[in-house]
Amino acid sequence: MRTGVDLAARTARDTIKDRVPGLAAEAALFTLISLPALILVVLGSLGFVADALGPEGADELDRLVFELPRTFFSERTYEAYADIARTVVENGRADVVSVGLLLSLWTGSRAVNRILETVSIAYDVTPRPGWRRRLVALGLTVAGLVGAVAVLPMLVLGPRIVRLVAPETVAEASLSVLSVLYWPTLGLLVLAALATLYHLGVPWRTPWHRDLPGAVLAMAVWFAASGVLRAYLALAGQDDQVYQRLGTPIAVVLWLYVSAVALLLGAELNAEIEKRWPTRETLRRSSPRPHEE
């Protein structure tokens, strides 16, 4: 019990000392800047996958692309957005995907680069050289974009995607099982992705399982904060259309910031665990060199 309290206290102290709230704001800003380019990539890709999902899947994707933006765009802005989005989604635009991909890689890698630098700060080690850190950030950004485009239909449709892509007999037999296992499996995949990000973020390699506590903390903070934001928007904007239009963009910014804070809190926890129970590699790197004695 005392060990857990001490670990939590040290994590909180180093979170303040390492300026995690400010660094999270920087990462959230770069992520926000990358969103328009990411939207271009997603919109350009949906035209290629909508037909494969069938009528029901296409209806769900239309709701995602056209109905949700209506809640926070002004009428004139929404009309301009809808005209462009409809053209891109209906036809599938490789040129839009290419331009959006380049822009999102440039802006998204800036956010990932900031996160990698913060992970090094949390571990109290010298960050990788700038060019190496940017290469790692670029690789993680590419992996994230590929994963986002691949996972988006599953997030939108949930277990129903099996009914759309599998034979009817297989779909009916497995749908009930998938309804139970779908979200836990998706949660485990996100947990593994977070642990991998922490694993690659440190300038040296720690055992992968040592990064799981931080991933669990990041997911817990993220789920809790997302639930609070969703409840606040649902209660505060029930009968106020003006507030709904203003509140949704604010909620997006806050959600990005909270996500960055959760990610960096997980890194701080992993760093404290590594300092308290160091691995052999950590001890080797922290021990003085012969010429330093």
UniProtKB/TrEMBL annotation:
The keyword Lyase does not apply. Pfam families: Virul_fac_BrkB. The chain crosses the membrane at residues 27-49, 135-161, 181-200, 212-234, 246-267. Its main location: membrane. InterPro entries: Virul_fac_BrkB. It is found in: Cell membrane. It is a multi-pass membrane protein. Keywords: Cell membrane, Membrane, Transmembrane, Transmembrane helix. The keyword rRNA processing does not apply. One of its GO terms (cellular component) is plasma membrane. PANTHER family: INNER MEMBRANE PROTEIN YHJD, UPF0761 MEMBRANE PROTEIN YIHY. This is Membrane protein. It comes from Nocardioides marinus.
